[in-house]
Amino acid sequence: MAAHFLFLALLALASSHAIASDPSQLQDFCVADLKSDVFVNGFICKDPKLAKAEDFFFCGLDKPRDTGNKLGSNVTQVNVNQIAGLNTLGISLARLDFAPYGVNPPHIHPRGTEILTVLEGTLYVGFVTSNPNNQLFAKVLNKGDVFVFPQGLIHFQFNYGKTNAVAIAGLSSQNPGVITIANVVFGVKPPISDDVLAKAFQLDKKTVDWLQAQFWMDNNN
Predict the structure, then answer these.
(1) How far from chain centre, in Å, is Cα 94?
(2) What's the CA gap between 200 and 42, in Å, rounded?
(3) pTM, 2 dp
(4) Radius of gyration (Cα) for the chain, nearest Å?
(5) How far is Cα 125 from Cα 112, in angstroms, rounded to an integer?
(6) Where are the beta strands (DSSP E) in the chain?
(7) What does the buried/exposed string (b/e) look like for 148-160 if buried means 16 or more CB atoms within 10 Å of the residue's CB?
(8) Of 42, 37, 47, nearest to 19 (Cα)?
(9) Over its length of 221 residues, how does the chain's per-residue pLDDT go in tens digits?
């Protein structure tokens, strides 16, 4: 009985690992057919005979992005939507540009771990662990420093220097997703009841209504 239970436990663990990441490729590559009407977990493959070098190519990541917005930051995503050849490969990339005192606000990637390195400037970065501890792990990063943000945990990057900052991030999913906390709490349409938010955040309704009336922007391109 004990051996049988152990086998079932190991099988469950293996199964959970198998479904907790991007679909694995069963051939050399599976270039996404972004125009297909067929809905699958990820993207359907186009005929490999029709694949071309451009399916694995993206240019322009060396160009600074516009940070003249309320957040003072701009995130350029390079995932399966930009490089169709990333389909099933479980990896993607992003460039992060920051104006002085710009922030990439608290957010999560529901489907990917992030590893970030600073190319220019200085960033204050961190992530917060799940309940009940909610511990903050934070660090000031300088040029060449690297930091990891575990999948699904709230994290942020902030440039508190007086010059621009640039970082590159790798993510362990072809499409890691982004959920910006403030946007989904106060900027969702239709809005969450102010009764719920007032109670949850221990605020008066007028403050909640004011927050919901603000423009909650997305800095991801």
Answers:
(1) 9
(2) 35
(3) 0.86
(4) 20
(5) 17
(6) 73-78, 92-98, 103-108, 114-120, 123-128, 136-141, 146-149, 154-158, 165-171, 179-180
(7) ebebebbbbbbbe
(8) 42
(9) 555 544 444 444 444 444 445 766 678 999 999 988 888 888 999 999 999 999 999 999 999 999 999 999 999 999 999 999 999 999 999 999 999 999 999 999 999 999 999 999 999 999 999 999 999 999 999 999 999 999 999 999 999 989 999 999 999 999 999 999 999 999 999 999 999 999 999 999 999 999 999 988 888 87
Strand-pair partners of 167? 96, 118
Q: Which residues contact 116 (CB under 8 A, 6 or more apart)?
A: 96, 125, 141, 146, 147, 148, 149, 157, 167, 168, 169, 170
- Listed as own residue / partner, the contacts of 29-32 with beta carbons closer than 8 Å and 24 or more positions apart are 29/56, 29/85, 29/87, 29/88, 29/89, 30/87, 30/88, 31/55, 31/56, 31/84, 31/85, 31/87, 32/80, 32/84, 32/85, 32/86, 32/87
Find out whether 175 and 79 touch, Cβ atoms under 8 Å.
yes
Q: Where are the alpha helices (DSSP H) in 71-193?
A: 181-186
Q: Which two tokens stand for residue 161?
A: 């220097």
The CA distances from residue 57 to 31, 76, 81, 176, in Å, are 12, 15, 12, 19
How far does Cα 147 stand from its chain's mean position? 14
Nearest to 82 by CA among 67, 68, 98, 94: 94
Q: Is 8 left (phi over 0), alpha (psi -120 to 50) or beta?
A: alpha
